[in-house]
Amino acid sequence: MGETEVISVKHEYLSTSLFDSKGYCLERSVLDPSATAEARNLLLARKERLHRLLEQWTGEPIPDNAAFARHQARIPDYTAGGLPVDLRHYLVGEFDLETRLDLRICRVLATPGVREWLIGFLGTSRYYVHYPPMVRFKMADAPGSILPAHQDFTYNRHLSDFITVWVPLVDIDDEVGGLILYDGSHLDGSVEHAPNGPWAHGLPKPAQLPYARHAAHMKVGDALLFPPQLIHESAPHRSATELRYSIDFRVFASPEDTTKSYFDPFDERVVRRN
């Protein structure tokens, strides 16, 4: 990794024991269709509401992706002018906190079949989910929504060990871009990040990293699992008709692995901290 500083992590039981040399696992058709449909319908409705709120705040219509991208480019000015936090998130393709707190999101990983599959994958008797999960959308011609290459540990320092379970709520192909994965990058450990555009963390000069890149194609019902040291980024989104909706779950084996609130999928309850 050149001269990039290596950052230590507390322990890496899950991240070092579950993945092969590429560093990720794509599981097909493991999610409950009714749970994913319920989550997607929630996001469709909430996106319409957020879009109307953004139009009201800016005082002008935002009729297409190009107009949305123009507003993305003005995030620094808007923030200085008092842009509400929920709308700032919306402009970078993230849903507001109220949406993320909705338990219909968490229940995607709480159905009986998913519980059985995940404890089998993890080799544990239970698992827990950081609360609230991150929920995103992507559209064509809106570059401000594209996450740069990064590792997930840097956004989740409250977790001592976890895996990401990435769930698309639409089918993912080259038009509806999902994630680009850097094969084997997890084996080199955690590395230093720096601010990148609207994002708090990104890797400098990712094109120079010595890893093969793989774009994950997925169907609704699939789940992509990877450790916090796997480098990944948003794939380009080219579809003029289909938005990408997705959920980032952080899953861990014990309540002691986090200092923040979490969702217990077995009791379907939230344990609040801080």
Structure description:
- With 274 residues, the chain is of the alpha+beta class.
- It has a domain at 13-33 and 108-267: Jelly Rolls (Sandwich), CATH 2.60.120.620.
- The protein has helices at 13-17, 33-58, 65-72, 75-80, 85-91, 97-101, 103-106, 112-122; strands at residues 25-27, 128-130, 134-138, 163-168, 179-182, 194-196, 199-202, 213-215, 223-226, 232-234, 244-252, 262-264, 269-271.
- Strands 1, 2, 3, 4, 9, 11, 12 and 13 form an 8-stranded antiparallel sheet that branches. Strands 8-5-10 form a 3-stranded antiparallel sheet, with no helix packed on it. A two-stranded antiparallel sheet has the order 6-7.
- 36% of the residues are buried.
- Residues 1-11 have low confidence and may be disordered.
Quick structural summary:
The protein has 274 residues and is α+β, with helices and mostly antiparallel strands.
CATH domain class of one domain: Mainly Beta
Query: Can you summarize the main beta sheet?
Result: 8 strands, antiparallel
Instruction: Based on the coordinates given, report the CATH architecture of one domain.
Output: Sandwich
Mean pLDDT: 90
Which terms summarize this structure?
alpha+beta; 274 residues; Jelly Rolls
Task: Describe the secondary structure blueprint for this structure.
Layout: H1 13-17, E1 25-27, H2 33-58, H3 65-72, H4 75-80, H5 85-91, H6 97-101, H7 103-106, H8 112-122, E2 128-130, E3 134-138, E4 163-168, E5 179-182, E6 194-196, E7 199-202, E8 213-215, E9 223-226, E10 232-234, E11 244-252, E12 262-264, E13 269-271
Antiparallel strand pairs: 1-9, 2-11, 2-12, 3-11, 4-9, 4-11, 5-8, 5-10, 6-7, 12-13
